[in-house]
User: Which sequence fits this backbone?
């Protein structure tokens, strides 16, 4: 029976920790079941009661496993695997009786702790995982340490210090191998922009403060008006809502004409660290020309990931400022359909077209219209039910957010015979000058319009006409206090919490750039840098080694090591070892030999000689005495053997 | 010359019966240019030993009985006005001798004690601003009554440290005392002691002592021994002066035994007599408890 009661409690806590860290993978009832099982175990340990018999535990685990299997379709394979693994660990803990079972469990815990990184990569969670990992290491130690042994902290600290450089070196230099297996994707709801926009049916735009992506610019930060992060194109309009078109965009890889790049000298280069969104669409500014290999550049100047982004993804983009070009007549055709309904809007568009035949003029007039008429920006617009939602917005409610304005503008333009589409993405972002990166959050999601003029897609943001501050500053600046409060729910108003949150966010940023972002590319780059500076590094290492040697040498010279015995003593000890064990520690060797000579009359002569020669060798440091001693010991081997046996018999 | 020294030892053994070890240690102290503290009850032969040593080595000998009213000037000497030459003339005190027996040193006042100890350390005295060198060799044998006797003032630790050896003659055994009583006065035998070693020869012997070899391993052992007395609360720590004294005494001991190297056994032999009064100044001379404890607790790997 396992004695370490504390280890059992520790493991119950540890499994609880893993359960919480993996809670994404568990639905409510599974968490409940696991909690009950753990509670039962803790209770039986605390009350010193016998645990369930193995038969019962097997039965229980079998029932839960079947239930999990039934749930497989809903949970997905990955989550199912995690559930089964944790179930096995919990059941093992329930039935734990022998030490060898505990050994298995320790290693299963290590594996489960590693699994936490499938679901989480941010730093705060990583710290929690590390804490759980330490708990497991401690339980591992407790399991095998002798009873009553205390953890020696200074020694542990030293061990950690010694291993730290090795650990860092492994992290930096160990080859980043491609994954040996694929982890099935989890069934998790996507975040971020959806596949369709229906402005009329949104009563309240939920403001999500979570991070969408972060950007590092190689050059200076572009002006705010340029920070339109394009993510999706909504090109199909059914009279009420906008959809992403089924155009085969991802199939053809779009390459921009290089001449254009030459003309436009204002180039852009930046690195995006995208948060997990479970969508393929990614973010780009203006016209991306090339990207790193892990993402795809698609027609329409959009960037997408090869598969839904389930972990943080970092990619590099090089591009230019400028409008995207029209791809095909098919594209133009698609973007001319004004959709059904909304007669008043179409009427208004026709009037505008008569007045302003040029698209640019028309857009200008539209801007004037939004600016001069009482249009309002609001996150809580009235609902617009029915078929003619654009009519209702333009002529009745006149209150809405970016989607309303973008949708209405695109409909007007299309009705006026100008190809137009709604672009979904993000606008602006929070710039952190010290850390030199731009943080774009979900609340900065935005929608605007692109219309075709002279064969290129011109960008037009009607929201900027209604609430220019929304573009120039931040969302907060545009809104009245009540709406701002909606945005800054409760605790976010506390200044110090805000600051702490900011700091954590920066830390998390460095974590993702330096730790998560350290892939095979960065490693190869590091290797290349190391190679270039090889002579310098070698010189530094040599210098450090030389210094260390110098210090060690002077130290050794200054202080003779007392452990080093004179050669004569070592010689004598080697030859007479078992005999010398009888010597009192404080007795000099020669005195002991003299004593032996008296107590062993048959060996008297040579023992006395030995004592004399030894004294000459060790006290007078005579080299020839040392040689004599060696010769004598060799010569008297037989007698030494006899002496040994006679002492043993005595 | 060593044989002559052994002859001196033999004749000393004729005068002081049954104490060969103490006599050897006393000679050892003389060779090592240290001073000797004899601690014994009255009538144990301290004075006889001092006198015999001086006689057999042909050294000038003075004896001063220390009393509580003895002044430093009585010991060191005075400048006396000579009416005839109308000048001050230095009248040398008893300290200007080669062997000085300071009898019952703990009866004198601390001032006088320290005047003597200063002379022992510096081998010179200053009187009225004039420094005068003491004769060489200069060997002080101080005797001391056990401290529980009335009317004594104990030597402070710092001054006990000036004595290389502290010995106690102790009672003679039955045979030796029997022999002592049978023959005539030992004082008259003292007169018979002839000079067997002159001053130059003694100086030469003394100069050979530092040349006795002490190997690194031995010095390490000695240091381990001395170190074991440090950082302890049950004894005073041994100073570097003490470790120097132990080594020098061990060298003299090895030299008398006819060796040109010091062995660990030599160190162990002299250690109690050199160390005990430094470890515990209030201990009795026969007692060597602390130094024996150190010897036992310090492993000797060589």
Assistant:
């Amino acid at each position: 029976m396992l004695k370490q009661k504390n280890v059992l409690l520790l493991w119950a806590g540890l499994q609880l920790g893993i359960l919480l860290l993996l809670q994404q993978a568990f639905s409510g009832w599974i968490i409940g079941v696991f909690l009950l099982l753990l509670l039962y175990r803790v209770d039986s340990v605390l009350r010193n009661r016998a645990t369930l018999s193995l038969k019962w535990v097997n039965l229980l685990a079998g029932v839960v496993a079947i239930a999990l299997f039934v749930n497989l379709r809903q949970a997905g394979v990955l989550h199912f695997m995690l559930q089964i693994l944790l179930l096995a660990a919990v059941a093992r803990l329930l039935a734990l009786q022998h030490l060898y079972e505990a050994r298995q469990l320790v290693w299963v815990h290590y594996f489960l702790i590693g699994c936490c990184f499938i679901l989480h990569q941010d730093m705060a969670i990583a710290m929690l995982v590390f804490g759980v990992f330490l708990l497991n290491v401690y339980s591992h130690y407790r399991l095998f340490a002798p009873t009553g042994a205390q953890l020696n902290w200074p020694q542990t600290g030293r061990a950690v210090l010694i291993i730290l450089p090795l650990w860092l070196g492994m992290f930096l230099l160990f080859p980043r191998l491609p994954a040996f297996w694929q982890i099935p994707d989890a069934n998790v709801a996507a975040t971020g922009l959806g596949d369709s926009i229906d402005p009329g049916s949104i009563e309240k735009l939920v403001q999500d403060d979570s991070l969408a992506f972060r950007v590092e610019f190689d050059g200076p930060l572009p002006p705010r008006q340029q920070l339109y992060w394009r993510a999706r194109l909504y090109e199909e309009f059914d009279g009420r809502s906008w959809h992403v078109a089924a155009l085969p965009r991802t199939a053809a890889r779009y390459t921009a004409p290089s001449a254009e790049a030459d003309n436009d000298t204002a180039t852009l280069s930046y690195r995006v660290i995208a948060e997990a969104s479970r969508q393929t669409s990614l973010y780009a500014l203006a016209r991306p020309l090339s990207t790193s290999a892990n993402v795809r550049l698609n027609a329409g100047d959009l960037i997408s990931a090869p598969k839904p982004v389930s972990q943080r993804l970092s990619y590099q983009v090089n591009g230019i400022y400028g409008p995207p070009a029209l791809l095909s007549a098919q594209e133009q055709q698609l973007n001319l359909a004004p959709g059904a309904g909304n007669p008043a809007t179409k009427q208004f568009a026709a009037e505008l077209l008569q007045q302003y035949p040029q698209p640019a003029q028309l857009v200008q007039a539209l801007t004037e219209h939004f600016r001069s008429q009482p249009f309002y920006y609001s996150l809580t617009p009235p609902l617009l039910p029915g078929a003619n939602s654009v009519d209702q917005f333009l002529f009745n409610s006149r209150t809405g957010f970016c989607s309303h304005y973008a949708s209405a503008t695109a409909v007007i333009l299309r009705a006026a015979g100008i190809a137009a589409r709604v672009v979904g993405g993000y606008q602006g972002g929070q710039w952190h000058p010290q850390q030199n990166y731009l943080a774009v959050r979900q609340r900065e999601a935005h929608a605007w319009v692109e219309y075709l003029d002279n064969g290129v897609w011109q960008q037009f943001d009607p929201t900027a006409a209604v609430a220019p501050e929304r573009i120039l500053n931040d969302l907060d600046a545009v809104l009245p206090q009540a709406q701002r409060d909606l945005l800054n729910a409760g605790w976010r108003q506390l200044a110090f919490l805000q600051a702490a949150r900011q700091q954590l966010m920066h830390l998390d940023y460095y974590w993702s750039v330096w730790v998560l972002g350290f892939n095979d590319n960065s490693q190869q780059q590091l290797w290349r840098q190391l190679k270039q500076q090889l002579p310098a590094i070698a010189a530094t290492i040599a210098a450090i080694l030389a210094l260390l040697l110098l210090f060690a040498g002077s130290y050794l010279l200054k202080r003779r090591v007392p452990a080093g015995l004179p050669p004569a003593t070592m010689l004598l000890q080697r030859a007479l070892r078992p005999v010398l064990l009888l010597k009192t520690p404080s007795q000099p060797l020669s005195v002991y030999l003299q004593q032996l000579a008296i107590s062993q009359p048959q060996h008297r002569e040579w023992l006395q000689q030995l004592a004399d020669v030894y004294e000459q060798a060790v006290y007078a440091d005579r080299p020839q005495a040392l040689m004599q001693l060696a010769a004598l010991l060799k010569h008297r081997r037989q007698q030494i053997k006899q002496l040994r046996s006679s002492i043993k018999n005595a | 010359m060593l044989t002559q020294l052994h002859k001196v030892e033999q004749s000393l053994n004729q005068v002081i019966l049954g104490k060969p070890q103490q006599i050897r240690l006393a000679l050892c102290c003389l060779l090592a240019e240290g001073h000797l503290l004899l601690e014994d009850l009255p009538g144990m032969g301290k004075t006889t030993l001092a006198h015999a040593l001086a006689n057999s080595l042909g050294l000038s000998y003075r004896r001063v009985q220390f009393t509580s009213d003895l002044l430093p000037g009585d010991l060191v000497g005075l400048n006396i006005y000579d009416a005839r030459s109308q000048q001050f003339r230095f009248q040398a005190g008893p300290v200007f001798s080669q062997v000085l027996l300071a009898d019952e040193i703990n009866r004198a006042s601390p001032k006088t004690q320290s005047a003597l100890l200063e002379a022992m350390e510096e081998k010179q005295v200053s009187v009225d601003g004039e420094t005068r060198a003491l004769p060489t060799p200069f060997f002080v044998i101080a005797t001391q009554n056990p401290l529980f006797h009335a009317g004594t003032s104990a030597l402070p630790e710092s001054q006990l440290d000036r004595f290389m050896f502290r010995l106690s003659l102790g009672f003679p055994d039955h045979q030796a005392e029997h022999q002592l009583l049978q023959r005539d006065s030992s004082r008259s035998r003292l007169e018979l002691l002839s000079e067997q070693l002159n001053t130059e020869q003694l100086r030469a012997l003394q100069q050979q002592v530092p040349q006795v070899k002490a190997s690194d391993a031995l010095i390490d052992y000695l240091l381990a021994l001395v170190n074991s007395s440090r950082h302890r609360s049950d004894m005073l720590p041994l100073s570097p002066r003490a470790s120097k004294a132990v080594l020098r005494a061990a060298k003299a001991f090895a030299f008398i035994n006819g060796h040109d190297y010091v062995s660990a056994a030599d160190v162990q032999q002299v250690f109690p007599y050199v160390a005990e009064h430094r470890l515990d100044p209030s201990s009795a001379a026969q007692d060597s408890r602390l130094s024996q404890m150190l010897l036992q607790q310090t492993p000797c790997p060589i």
About this structure: The mean pLDDT of chain B is 87. Chain B touches chain A at residues 213-218, 220, 224, 259-265, 268, 295-302 (CB under 8 Å).
